[in-house]
Amino acid sequence: MSYQLELRHLKYFLAVAEELHYRRAAEKLFISQPGLSKQIKQLEEKLDVQLFERHNRKVVLTKAGEYLKVEITKNLKNLDNILNHAKLINTGKDGNLKFGYVGSAMQDIIPNLLVRLNQQYPNISFGLKEMDNKSQIESLLSNEIDIGFVRVEKVPKSIERKTVLKESFCLVLPKSHEINAYNFKSLKDFQTEPFILFDAKYSVSYYEKVMEIFEQFRFTPIVSHNTIHAESIYKLVENGFGISIVPKSLTKTNYTGIQFIELNKIPQRTTLSAVWSKENRNPVIQNAINLLHSF
């Protein structure tokens, strides 16, 4: 059996593993259902491993099949990245880096990194995608991105993490609010006001850190809205729907109808970290990591 045929078999396997339905997988691959079944059977015979359990028209991955799905997905993505890097080298580029990030990282950290990257390695191109924390970790594990910027406390063992910013929190109030930075006394003065907070889906550890702040002042906040976007928070605060708490790095904004009060006397701090996979084979990722160590 040729390598080309084996590669095709693996792609057929992934289609069935993702759909768990032979007809849908066959339609996705533009081949006949009997032909697909034959290809999967050949793969199982070649590997001497049962990949699927079939009963009552239901298709379920075996444990071996589940393992193979994860590893093949990751390694085929590696192959795609290798081929793409070869194309870049052919056009005079050293390579490409794909960054994921939460919104606050775009205030200073990422722009500074990209300026330095462009100065020292002008032949490296890059792509940027705003993503929540969970999506970034998943994308790192599947090699969809090379480096992420997240607010999480724990990462999988295969992920390397470096703190690039540790900062205080800030209250976000309407500009017209009777309390401002000059007469502010305590967060407890806001215990009857509605809060607009980042959803726990944004980052569980970040959400828990914010809840610690309220626990310190011995009250449970009235949460009127949850969101994963700072822009939504500012718009709601500006229009009087509540107040909020955000990292200090998010205070750089063009919204004129809001004000910020830094909570610099409380112990809680939020950490922005750069993360990347230890198994990433991108030939230019180390260039960016070296720059990150200077932050």
Task: Throw out a few tags for this protein.
3 domains, D-Maltodextrin-Binding Protein, domain 2, 3-stranded antiparallel beta sheet, Arc Repressor Mutant, subunit A, 12 strands, 5-stranded mixed beta sheet, elongated, 9 helices, alpha/beta, 295 residues
Identify the CATH architecture of the largest domain. 3-Layer(aba) Sandwich
- Secondary structure: helix percent: 40-55%
In total, the number of domains comes to: 3
- Basic shape: elongated
Report the average pLDDT across residues. Answer: 89
Strands of the biggest beta sheet: in what spatial order?
4-3-5-12-6
Name the poorly predicted regions: none
Counting DSSP E segments of at least 2 residues, the number of strands comes to 12
Return the structural class.
alpha/beta
Strand fraction: 15-25%
| Radius of gyration of CA atoms, rounded to a whole number | 24 Å
Order of helices and strands: HHHEEHEHEHEEEEHEHEEEH
Distance between the termini: 51 Å
Count of alpha and pi helical runs: 9
Q: Identify the CATH class of the largest domain.
A: Alpha Beta
Question: Can you tell me the CATH topology of the largest domain?
Answer: D-Maltodextrin-Binding Protein, domain 2
Provide the CATH superfamily of the largest domain: Periplasmic binding protein-like II
Query: Could you give a short account of the major beta sheet?
Result: 5 strands, mixed
